[in-house]
Design brief:
The chain is α+β, with helices and mostly antiparallel strands. It is 32% helix and 18% strand.
Length: 954
């Protein structure tokens, strides 16, 4: 080619797939998709109703877990799940589904409030700025979200409905007979009519308004109570158990957490414990997450037993009532309310000094021990500690089966939140009781005969004997003998005996506690509750929702010295006097009220957000019933309904996921939704990790500035140590998606994150490896576009058989992989096909090029859209049909069959993959090489595994 006809270097560059071209393509198509509403999913009715033909398709509701809009922005680990759901959603659209895929923002919470405290910036201002930045970052990735459906939990028209749901829960009670929630008005009607007995035995009409409120508080699914809570003075707020670390400190801020009794709002999630367990079986969730929920709910069958303690009865829960004759002492939780009632003034004569904790009186010992245990979290108290601690209360209880007096201790290994906060200790048959008894020189009695030959004297044992496969001994008393019975029979017999005498009964217990629902914070949903002059709570009517947060000058709760366990909360809202004290007409004239000054926890808004995605602009109802039924209703394979695919981290197993399930069940019981479960299928994506580097001081240094040479790592010329960990700002190893998009383009980033490994496995980030996916896209581009002229190079005509086989195998494999969330192997198959076409060294037939573009479209949508239009199509690639494989080309034309004699290969035959066992045997025995190898020997047996193996035994 002459110099005058050669394209200028700039012109040639203009037709190459570079980062600059990728940026231009991606920005243009993102704008076009938004302008054309490409990703808008029509509802069957309402303001988002659309094409009936699209609505008639099978639907698919795909969700990511709510992101929190951090001021630090995204690093490349954050979009892993978002890209995966986007690829899956695109594939589902192309396979004929009406796909709802969108993303909102979980925007209340502590980080924005802490920033407000530090800077004086209103949390809404900083949060909305963070949301806008995150939206830009996510948009650059080409995520196909229906943007009409997006929202933030801080939007008043969103949290109006969060408050409304709270009121539905508040105005409901759980009917254990009907096994469902019912409106509280129905309970009141039963009390008024006398068809249900009022607790305490009085008539409903005889109760004052305050007394009625107290009665109903014992039934309501949302209730206020004075109960032990996790009080964190350093944060100025109470925390849920799940927000406290194993060493008794706050997850956020690492402050000490103490036990305190405060009036707080709670959700009676325990009423749903059985249903939360039972319905797990119908959910398509990872078994590990189901197991965590089962363990957290902690269902156990046993008996409640009353031990006489003076004029009181101390009730214990035990899963082993058969061992009651072996109970030689009792243990109460340090915060048990009965402790203060019966502690005597002096130690009983002959008290073991080990029992006293070195204190002169029982009161001093109990007070000191309670103060120590208050500084420990429940998790820390339950951990297996080498040294068992506790003190004697100075009192004795009576074992109801033997009449024996047993000493009563308090010890922190017993929790007020589990069972009744009291246990009967059977040290011979419980490991913790055994260790405690040894430490405090308490008696042990064997009542279950060991089967391991250790004998029946616990004094000679090294540990407790706990078994369900043994017989009872030493267990005979007033009107009952368990000796000789197996454990199961003994449990039934003793439970009946206790029930007949009114001192016990069979029961079910749960580890699950009611959900603490109050926070002493500003940046959260206000409770739609006011209190009258008598302190009685009143719900605001729906017409007064949303109750919006007031403007305040100081966003911080009052904090205290971190170790000031005696401090009490003071919330930011309590200082907004004009907002707190109001004149309202709640239906019986204008009166003075005081607003609730706690706010809801940050979990509230994420308990129901899947429903808002369905009908985001509905101001008249939580959700249109027809819309909810269409997207989330029960269906084949999903009897409880729910989202079709929910992707997020495994860290939310017993927080968000359990809470959202509870809210769904209440709304279902009350008839507001048709789905009793929020998320039918759950998938936990792995984590993107990265190398981090520390200097000689152990301080992290910027990973991007570390040099690798001579087998070592250096920062500013000094050696540093490399470690593998989570990517993030604190480790100074974060890589932003903006950086990768600028250097390679968003499609390359998408491909790399999906190609790194299985989606549910954590994987290391390697920026140097990103270029591999960039080159895949460059080869794809060159297969269709002339880099010198920009012309499309495809030709008409039919592809040869080898090309058809390569194409249809890729379509078949990659399509199945995308449907199964196996994106790494889908990319491998597409890469193999693209390499095959590249090596062919000839223009692609149009039918091959078009199907290649459609094949990669879910993974790399921008380049696919550009190539699709360059191939002459006016419609978006997003809504094209995914290619379908021809089965005739998917199977191999021939496979190699190995023929063995005495375990050695004697021949290889090329046979059809569909050949039968009989035909393959005949073919093998007729082969010249096999005939020669047999040499006339007698054949004893022929083993055929068509189409790949024939084994001849002679």
């Amino acid at each position: 080619m002459s110099e005058t006809n050669s394209p200028a270097p700039e012109a040639a560059e203009a037709h190459r797939y570079t980062a600059a071209m990728a940026a231009d393509i991606e920005a243009r198509w993102q704008d076009a998709w938004d302008a054309q509403g490409t990703y808008e999913a029509p509802n069957p009715t309402g303001d988002l109703a659309g094409d009936p033909a699209v609505v008639a398709r099978p639907k698919k509701f795909i969700m990511d877990m709510f992101p929190y809009p951090s001021g630090a922005g995204l690093h490349v680990g954050h979009p892993l799940g978002y890209i995966a759901t986007d690829v899956y959603a695109r594939h589902q659209r192309m396979t004929g589904h009406n796909v709802l895929h969108t993303l909102g923002f979980d925007a209340f919470g502590l980080p924005a409030e802490q920033y407000a405290v530090q800077t004086g910036t209103h949390p809404r201002v900083s949060t909305e700025a963070n949301i806008e930045n995150m939206k830009k970052q996510l948009r650059r990735l080409g995520l196909g979200h229906d943007r009409r459906r997006s929202f933030a939990t801080i939007d008043p028209d969103y949290y109006k409905w969060t408050q409304w749901i709270f009121l539905q829960i508040y105005n409901s009670w759980y009917d254990a007979d009907a096994k469902k929630a019912r409106p509280i008005t129905e309970l009141v009607a039963e009390f008024e009519a006398g068809t249900r007995e009022v607790p305490g035995g009085r008539t409903w009409s005889a109760l004052t308004a305050a007394e009625r409120a107290d009665v109903l508080g014992g039934f309501r699914l949302a209730y206020s109570s004075d109960a032990p809570v996790n009080w964190c003075p350093g944060l100025g707020t109470v925390l849920a158990n799940e927000e406290v670390t194993a060493d008794g400190r706050s997850e956020r801020g690492n402050f000490p957490v103490f036990k305190a009794r405060l009036s707080q709002w709670n959700m009676r999630i325990t009423a749903y414990a059985d249903r939360l367990l039972e319905d797990l079986e119908e959910l398509d969730w990872p078994e590990a997450i189901k197991l965590q929920q089962r363990n957290w709910i902690g269902r156990s069958e046993g008996a409640r037993v009353d031990f006489a303690l003076g004029d009181e009865a101390v009730t214990v829960f035990t899963t082993r009532p058969d061992t009651l004759f072996g109970a030689t002492y009792m243990v109460l939780a340090p915060e048990h309310p009965l402790v203060e009632k019966f502690v005597p003034a002096a130690w009983p004569e002959g008290t073991n000094e080990k029992w006293t904790g070195g204190h002169a009186t029982p009161a001093a010992a109990v007070a000191a021990y309670r103060a120590t245990s208050a500084a420990k979290s429940d998790v820390e108290r339950q951990a297996d500690a080498k040294e068992k601690t506790g003190v004697f209360t100075g009192e004795y209880a009576v074992n109801p089966v033997s009449g024996e007096k047993v000493p009563v201790f308090i010890a922190d290994y017993v929790l007020m939140g589990y069972g009744t906060g009291a246990i009967m200790a059977v040290p011979a048959h419980d490991a913790r009781d055994f260790e405690f008894a040894r430490a405090f020189e308490l008696p042990m009695r064997c009542v279950v005969r060991p089967t391991d030959g250790r004998g029946t004297d616990p004094a000679e044992w090294d540990d407790a004997f706990a078994s369900y496969d043994a017989e009872l001994v030493n267990s005979a008393g007033d009107g009952i003998t368990l000796d000789g019975l197996g454990v199961v029979e003994a449990k039934a017999a003793i439970t009946d005996w206790l029930a007949e005498r009114g001192i016990g009964e069979g029961t079910v217990n749960f580890r699950l506690r009611d959900w603490l629902f109050s926070r002493q914070r500003y940046w959260g949903e206000p409770f739609p509750i006011v209190y009258d002059e008598d302190g009685v709570a009143h719900a605001l009517p729906e017409s007064m929702l949303p109750l919006e947060l007031p403007e305040v000058d100081d966003y911080s709760p009052r904090t205290f010295e971190p170790d000031d366990a005696s401090s009490k909360p003071e919330t930011p809202l309590s200082r907004a006097e004009d907002w707190v004290h109001v004149e309202l007409d709640l239906g019986d004239g204008v009166k003075s009220y005081r607003r609730e000054t706690n706010t809801m926890p940050n979990w509230a808004g994420s308990c129901w957000y899947e429903l808002r995605y369905l009908d985001p602009h509905n101001d008249a109802a939580l959700v249109d019933p027809a819309v909810e039924q269409y997207w989330m209703g029960p269906r084949e394979g999903a009897p409880h309904g729910g989202v079709d695919l929910y992707v997020g981290g495994a860290e939310h197993a017993v927080l968000h996921l359990l809470y959202a399930r509870f809210w769904s069940k209440v709304l279902f019981d009350l008839g507001h939704v048709s789905s009793a479960e929020p998320f039918h299928k759950l998938f936990n994506q792995g984590m993107i990790q990265a190398y981090a580097y520390t200097d000689a001081r152990g301080v992290y240094v910027p990973a991007a500035d570390v040099e690798e040479r001579d087998g070592g790592y250096f920062y500013e010329g000094r050696p540093v140590r490399r470690e593998h960990g989570k990517m993030g700002k604190s480790l100074k190893n974060a890589v932003t998606p903006d950086e990768i998009c600028a250097e390679y383009g968003a499609d390359t980033l998408r491909l790399y994150e999906m190609a790194m490994g299985p989606l549910d496995v954590s994987r290391p980030w390697d920026t140097r490896a990103v270029v591999g996916q960039y080159r895949l896209l460059q080869r794809l581009w060159r297969n269709i576009v002339d880099e010198e002229t920009g012309a499309v190079t495809v030709v008409d005509g039919e592809p040869d058989e080898a090309t058809l086989r390569a194409l249809h195998k890729a379509i078949d494999g990659a399509g199945a992989d995308m449907a199964g969330l196996r994106f790494n192997t889908a990319i491998a198959k597409i890469t193999e096909l693209n390499n095959f076409l590249t090596k062919a060294g000839k223009p692609l037939e149009r039918s091959v090029a078009e199907r290649l573009v459609l094949l990669i479209a879910p993974l790399a949508p921008h380049i696919a859209e550009e190539l699709w239009h360059r191939l002459g199509h006016a419609e978006s690639v997003v809504h094209q049909d995914f290619p379908v494989a021809d089965p005739a080309y998917v199977v191999d034309e021939a496979v190699t069959c190995v023929v063995q004699i005495k375990g050695k290969v004697k021949a290889r035959l090329e046979v059809p993959p569909t050949i039968s066992d009989d035909d393959l045997e005949k073919l093998a025995l007729a082969d010249d090489a096999v005939v020669a190898a047999l040499g006339g020997a007698e054949i004893r047996k022929v083993i055929v595994r068509a189409p790949k193996l024939v084994n001849i035994v002679i």
